[in-house]
Amino acid sequence: MPETARGIDPRGPRFAAAITSVLLLVDVFLGLIGATVPAFVLLVVIALLFVWGVASPRTAPWGALYRSLIRPRLAPPRELEDPRPPRFAQGVGLFVTAIGIALSLLGVPWAVPAAAAAAFVAAFLNAVFGLCLGCQLYLVLQRAGVLGRRTADAA
């Protein structure tokens, strides 16, 4: 891992994904029962949380909550993780929710629950199984040369 990218506890993003998946599931439910305004507002809030996670992951609320309340009660992680893939995954979540918001503003009736459901699947897989789809996309794009590559000795 390059010196500029400090490692993070891999349990932190999973904790954040668990909270995010609950919020997204509530959003899907609201959208499906016809509570369109609350569903839209909640999706905007979730999108803003994704913005926060991309712009300043160190101060993002779920990460701060994990570091202050949860991590001190756990054994140290066996290994640290590169922070770039989870940060990229936050950007993917932002992209998905932003598409839902934009389509909803254009009058597409099922845009909010569909976007929330898509984001929920990704967050749920990360929270429950540790499978971060955004992180996997980051690695694919990195191998393809689209995103920055690690140095040879760090790879």
UniProtKB/TrEMBL annotation:
The protein, known as: DUF4395 domain-containing protein
Residues covered by the DUF4395 domain: 8-143
Key words of the record: Membrane, Transmembrane, Transmembrane helix
Residue ranges crossing the lipid bilayer per the database entry: 39-57, 92-112, 118-141
Organism, scientific name: Microbacterium schleiferi
